[in-house]
Amino acid sequence: MTTVDDTWSELTARMRGFADLSNVNALLGWDQETYMPLRGSDARARQMATMRVIRHEMLVNPRLGELLDRAGDEPLDRPRQEMVRLLRRDRDRAVKLPPEFVRRLALAEGRGAVAWRVAREEGDFALYEPALEEIIAAKRDEADLVGLDGERYDALLDQFEPGMRVARLEPLLALLRAELSELLAAIVAAPQLEQAPFEQRLFPDAQQWDLTMRLLGDLGFDLTAGRQDRSAHPFTQTMALGDIRVTTRIDERHPLSGIYSTVHEAGHGLYEQGFEPRFEDTPLAAAPSLGLHESQSRLWENIVGRSRPFWDHYAPVMREIFPDVAADITAEQLYVACNRVQPSLIRVEADEVTYNLHILIRFELELALMRDQLEVAELPGAWGDAYERTLGLRPENDVLGVMQDIHWSHGSFGYFPTYTLGNLYSALLWDAYCKDDPAAEDHIGAGEFQHVLGWMREHVHKAGAIDQGEDLIRRVTGSGLDHAPFMQYLWAKYRTLYNLA
Amino acid sequence: MTTVDDTWSELTARMRGFADLSNVNALLGWDQETYMPLRGSDARARQMATMRVIRHEMLVNPRLGELLDRAGDEPLDRPRQEMVRLLRRDRDRAVKLPPEFVRRLALAEGRGAVAWRVAREEGDFALYEPALEEIIAAKRDEADLVGLDGERYDALLDQFEPGMRVARLEPLLALLRAELSELLAAIVAAPQLEQAPFEQRLFPDAQQWDLTMRLLGDLGFDLTAGRQDRSAHPFTQTMALGDIRVTTRIDERHPLSGIYSTVHEAGHGLYEQGFEPRFEDTPLAAAPSLGLHESQSRLWENIVGRSRPFWDHYAPVMREIFPDVAADITAEQLYVACNRVQPSLIRVEADEVTYNLHILIRFELELALMRDQLEVAELPGAWGDAYERTLGLRPENDVLGVMQDIHWSHGSFGYFPTYTLGNLYSALLWDAYCKDDPAAEDHIGAGEFQHVLGWMREHVHKAGAIDQGEDLIRRVTGSGLDHAPFMQYLWAKYRTLYNLA
Fold it and tell me: I need a surface site. Which of A390, B220, B251, B420 has the fewest CB within 10 A?
C-alpha cells in the first residue's frame, strides 16, 4: 500500500529533477551571454532545446499525473497544496503540447535568435522575417493548443503572469497610456533640464566595476551566494539558492548605465536570495509572476535608485571613487541626469515616463499579431506608425525599430506587459512599505537599505510563489492591481523636477 | 516500412541528444571549477547526478537497442559502423546498471567530492573515509555488475581505456617501474642541477596571463572557437566543436607552472579542435581513449614544451614580456629549470622521470582495493609505505599523501594509468612524426608549431574515435604499446642534462 509519505517522497524527487533542469538551463543561458564563444551558439541553442524537450517529457509522464492526483486527494498543508497546484498547472499546459510541437517551437526559437543577430548586424529585416514568421506561427499554434477560455493572447500572457487576461489588462493599459501621454505632454512643454559637466566625461571602466560591486553589497546582495559578471544585456539567473548571478554592462561615457543595470538586477537577485530555504527545489522557490519579479527590480532601480536621497548618499561616493572626473559632482546633478525625460526610440534607454509607452507599443503589436490583424511583413511599418503616434518619432531603420529587442526571437510573446505590471506593482508595494516605515527616505539617504529589504523579504520574497501575483499584492497592500499609485509617484517626482503646474 | 534512412535519421537524433547531454555536463563541470560560488556546490553535484541519470535512461531505452540492432543488420560505411559499435558499447554497459545504482553512485561521488574538500581543509582523513568507503563499495559493485571477463579492475579500466586489461597492463607497468627506478637512481647519484637567479623572482600575474594566451595562439589553438580561464586544477572541456575551453593556473613565484598548465591543456584542446567536423554530435568526435587524449597533452607539454629548442624560441619572448625579472634569462636556464628531477610527494608537481612513479603507486593501490586486498582504513598507511618504497619519502600528513588528488572522490578508479599510457603513446607518436619530418626540432626552435600540429591532425585528431586506442597507435606508428621509446626519450634527455654514463 502506498502512503501519503511515499507519494510525497516520490513527488519531492520529481520536483528536485525539475529544479535541477531549470538550474542547468539557467547556467546554459548565463554562459551564453557571458563567456561562450560565438561559435558555440548553434550548439548551445540545440542544448537548450534538448533540455526543454526533456523537461516536457518529465512533465507529461503519466506517473506525475498519478502522483498529483493522489496527493490532491490527501489533506495537505498550504505550501504542499500550492506545490501541487503549480506542478499541475505546468503539467496541464504541457500535456496539451505534443512533443514534436515542443521541439518545433524550441528549434524555431533557436533559429530565431541567430537570425535576429545576423539581421541586426546586416541591418536587414528581411533576413529576420522568415524566422520570425515561423516563431509567430508556432506561438499562434501554441496558444490554440493550450486554448485558455479567453482570446489567443491569454494563453501566452498566462505563462508569464498566471491568471492575467487581456480582458483585464487591455483597458487598464489604455488608461495608463492616456495618463502617461498627458504627463509626457506636460514635461515636453516645460523647459528641458540642464546637463551637468560630468555628463560629457569618461568614467574609467575599472572604477565603475568596483562601484557596481560595492552597490551590490550595499543593497544587501549576498556575494558569497552569487556573483556579478558582464553581458551585453544585463540579466539575473539562478543556478541554486546559494548561486544567484547578476550581470551588468559598463559604458565609460555613461556611468549611470552600469549603476542602474546593477541596481535593477540586484532587485531581481535580492528577490531570489530571499526565498524561504525550505522551499528550495520546489515550485515555490519562484516569484508568482514575472510582473512581481519585475516589481522588485524596478522598485530598487527607480523608486530607490533614482530618488534624491539615493544620490545624497552616493554623490560623495562618486566623488571618492572618481576623483579625476567627478570631484565637482553634486547629488542634484546626478538626480537630474538620471531622471531627464526624453522621448526616444530605444526602450532600454528610456526614462521612467516614456518607458511604459515603449511597452504599450509592443503590447498593441503583439495583440494584433495574435488576433491575426497584423502579419510579420507589416511589422516594421506598424512599428514606425506606433512610435510616431505615441512618441512622435519614427525609426530610420529596423535596428532602431522592430529589431531592437531580442524577446520575440526567443518566442517571448506576452512577456513585455509584465515590465509595466512590475512598475504598477512596485508603486503599490512602495506605498505599503512607507506606511510601515515613515523614515523610508531617511534610511535611503543614509545608505541603509536593510529596512526596505527587510520589509520586502518579509512581505514579498519569503512567500515565493505561494500566492498568485495579484493575490500577493492584495494581501500585502490591501488593494489590487491599479495604475493610480504609479501615476501619483510619477507626478510627484516630475512635478517638482520640471516645475509642472 | 522503415528504411535504413529512417533508422539512421532516428539514430542521428539520439546521438545528438547524447552529445547535447555530454556538452551540458561539460559546462556544469567547467563552471564548477571556474566561476561557481562555493555555496552552489551541493546543488551542482545534484544537477550533474540528475544529468547522469537522464543519460542512463536514454541509453537503456529499448528503442535505442532496436535501432542499433536494425542499423547493425545493414551494410554501413566505416564511420557508421564505428558509431554503432561505440553506442552499443555504452548501451551494453548501461543496461547492466540499474537506475537506482546509477543514482547511488552519482550521489556517492557528489558527497565524496564535498567530503574530500572538507577533509583537506581540516587535514583529517577520518572526515573523508566514510564517503570514500561508500564510493569504493559502489565501484566494486559497478565492476561486478558490468562483469567483464577478466578481473574486477578491468571493468573500471575499460571505461577510460577501452579494450585495455590488467593482464596486459600490470606486467608492462612493472617493467616501466623497474626502468624508471634505475634512471632515477642514476640521476639522484649525479650532482644536482643549479638554480638560476630567476627562480627566486616574482613574475607578475597579468604578464603571465598574456604569455599563456600568446602560447595558446602560437601552438595553434583557435581562440575564436574556445577560450582560456583560470581554475585551481587546470582542465579542458568541450561544449561544442566550436566551443572548447582550457583553464590554467598562475603562480607568481613559479612562472613555469602557468606555462606548462597552458601547454598541457592546449594539447587536449588542439586534439578536440581537430576532430572531423562531420563527426560532430556523434560518438566519433572523441579520442579513442583517455590515454590517447593524454598522449597529446603530454607530447605538447613535455616532448615539445620541455625541449631545448622550445626555450631557444621562448627565452627571448620571456625577456621581452618580463623585462624587470627576466632580462638576464637564458634558454639553458629555462631548460634546466623545467627538467630538474627531484623525488617529491606531489604528483602534479613532479618531473618527467618521477611522474609515472606517482601513477604506478596509485595503480598499485587501486588494484589492491579492487582485489579486496586493501581496505579504505588502511589506505593512508599503504600510501606512505608505497611512497617510501618508491620515492624514498613518506608524507607527514594525508593532505600531502592520500588526499592530494580529487580523482577517487569523483569515483575515477582506473583513470590514473591512462596518464602513464599517455606518456608511452606520446613517445611512440613523436618518433613516428620525426621520421616524417627530420626538421622537427628546427621547427620548434623557430616557433613553428604548425608542422607537428598538422601531422597530429592528419594522423591522430581527424580520426576521432574510429579506431580503438592501440589500433590507432599501431596504424600510425607501425608498433603497438611499448614502454621502450618513452624510456629512450627520457634517457636521451637526462643523460645529457645530468651527464649520466
Answer: B251
